[in-house]
Amino acid sequence: MSITSRPLTQTELLLELEPVVGRELDRHLAVAREWFPHEYVPWSEGRTFDGVLEGEAWSPEDSSISEAARVSLVVNLLTEDNLPSYHHEIATTFGRDGAWGTWVHRWTAEEGRHGIAIRDYLTVTRAVDPVTLERARMSHMENGFATQYDGMLRQLAYVSFQELATRIAHRNTGRVSGDGVCERLLSRVAADENLHMLFYRNLLAAAFELAPSQTMRAVTDVVTSFQMPGQGMEGFPRKSVTIAMAGIYDLRQHSDEVLLPVLRHWKAFDIEGLDAEGEQAREELSAFLAQLDAAAARFEERREARRARAEA
Questions:
Q1: Residue 272 to residue 263: CA distance in whole angstroms
Q2: Terminal CA-to-CA distance of the chain, rounded, Å?
Q3: What's the mean pLDDT in 145-170?
Q4: Sorting pLDDT into bands at 50, 70 and 90, what band is 5?
Q5: How many Cα neighbours within 13 Å face the side chain of 189?
Q6: Cα separation, 68 vs 63, whole angstroms
Q7: CATH number of the 10-48+58-311 domain
Q8: Where along the chain do its domains lie?
Q9: What average pLDDT does this structure show over 212-235?
Q10: Which residues pair with 49 in a beta bridge?
C-alpha cells in the first residue's frame, strides 16, 4: 500500500484493504479459541418459572448479585441482542464476498454466542425478571440499530473503540457481580471482544498508512461523537449513570482505557504527511481529549463526594 494525496472512494478502500483483511482473518482464526456457552451456565440452579408450566414466580430475592451488575448485565445483553442489525450494517458496508465477507460472517457467529450465554445465565440464576427482560428485548430489537457514521473508515474507527469499550464493560460487570460464575462467563465474552478489537484496530492502522488524512478525519469524527450501541434502549441515560457510579464504565475508563490506548497504537499524534484537513482533524482530536479528561476528573470528584456522603 502507498500513501495517496487524494481521498479514496469506498470501493478503492475496500479493494486496497482486502489483503490486510485476509491476513488479519488468518491471524484471528489462529488465536481464537473455540468455546461453548452451555459450559458457562450453572444449569443445576435452574427452576421452572410461573406461567404455562406453573412454576415459581420470579422475585428480586432470587439473586444476590449487586443491582449495578444486574443493570449492566441487562444493558450488555440487550446490546448483544441487536446483532441482526449490526450484521446488516457491516455486511452492507464491507460486503459479503471475499475476505471481507468471510470476516463479516465469522464475527457475527462469534458475537452470537454472547447473547446466548448471558441470557441463559440470567434466566437460570433468576438474576432478572424474565418477563421484563423479554419485553425490553422486543422493544430494543424493534428499534434496531443504524450506524450514525457514513463510510467504511468511520465505521472501522467506531468498532475499533466500541469493541474495546464492550470488553471493559463485560469484564468489570463480572467483577462487581460478586458471583464467580458470572465473572468467568463475562471474562470469556470479553476475550472475544478483545480479539475483535484487535482485528479492527489493525485494519484501521493499515488505513492510516494508505490514506492518513482521510483516516484522521474519520477517527476524529468518531471520537468526538462516540456513543455506545445501547444508547437507544429505554432508560439508557439512567442505566448508564448507575453503571458509571459503580465503576463499571465511566468517562475515565472511556478516556484512559479505550481512546488513548488505541490512539497510541495508531501513533495518531506522530503521523507525518497529513494535509491541512488532516492536521485540523488532529488538532480537534487533541482538544477534545483534553476536554474529556477534565470532564472525567469532575465526574470522579462528584462520585467520591457522593460515596463519602453515603458512608457518613
A1: 15
A2: 61
A3: 95
A4: low
A5: 34
A6: 13
A7: 1.10.620.20
A8: 10-48+58-311
A9: 93
A10: 56
Q: What's the residue count for the chain?
A: 312
pLDDT digits (tens, 9 = 90+) for 76-114: 999 999 999 999 999 999 999 999 999 999 999 999 999
CA gap 124, 47 in Å, rounded: 7
Q: Is the pLDDT of residue 307 over 50?
A: yes
How sure is the predictor about 17, in pLDDT bands with cuts at 50, 70 and 90? very high
User: From the CB of residue 174, how many other CB atoms can be counted at a distance below 10 Å?
Assistant: 25
What is the CB-side half-sphere exposure of residue 70 using CA atoms within 13 A? 17
